[in-house]
Amino acid sequence: MGDVEQKFIFLAQQRNLIHDWLDYHCVRDPKYYYSVVSTIYFDTPQLQLYREKRNGDYLKSKIRLRWYEDWHTLTPGKTVRGFLELKRRVGVFRQKERVEVELTSQSLRDNPLKNQEIMELPVMMKRVAENLPEMLAPMLHIQYNRYRFVDPHSGSRFSLDTDICCLNANDDYVAGFPPVFLDAGVMEFKGECRELPATFLPIMDYITKDAFSKYGRCFEHLMQPISRVV
User: Fold this and answer.
1) Domain total in the chain
2) pLDDT of residue 192
3) What CATH number should be reported for the domain holding residue 19?
4) Measured between alpha carbons, how far is 59 from 47 in angstroms, rounded to an integer?
5) SS3 49
6) Who contacts 37 (Cβ-Cβ below 8 Å, separation ≥6)?
7) Domain limits at 210?
8) What are 131-188's pLDDT values in tens digits?
9) How do residues 13-30 score in pLDDT, each as one tens digit?
10) In a 10 Å sphere around its CB, with 0-12 CB exposed, 13-18 middle and 19+ buried, how is residue 21 labelled?
């Protein structure tokens, strides 16, 4: 079925507390401790994938383009290594297909949600995965800081995502005016265990288990700005 993936959200101002706790009780990922994560999320014109998440469907899919560089500092003329990902969830279990792609920094910098090269990427995913929606368009461009840790006792992996921001939205399908900054961060817990290690009990008052979606939460902030709550 794949790994178990669970998410816990926290108030953005508590990020240092949660980070320091992970830093003390876990081991920093020796290769990928910190990175800026840039992601473009795809959806159907009817927003099928967003609605699967919003409705809490047992079966959910996510299609995204991800690269690990700050969008603001992309160098002109540079080739950027990215990953086109299909992520499917069955309850708390996850399965992921990943295809490596190379893109020009220009295609990512100049209105990436309307760039022809990026708009055609889902065709590549359809060659390796079944039952994808017929039409997919880039909807939101989201960026955040990610810190990665490993629990030395269980081998479970933790990632801490902070400073989550929606930089761009496809105005053909999405109302609202980016950028949008979320007032929450998220800690992801991945591994074979269904429960957090006992060492995390002291910070349980600061984190809340939640089926958090950066894509879904940014969409709601754009569409319903009055209800911006954690």
Assistant:
1) 1
2) 72
3) 3.20.100.30
4) 15
5) helix
6) 66, 68, 143, 144, 145, 146, 161
7) 4-227
8) 777 889 999 999 999 999 998 887 889 999 999 999 999 999 988 889 999 999 999 9
9) 999 999 999 999 999 999
10) buried
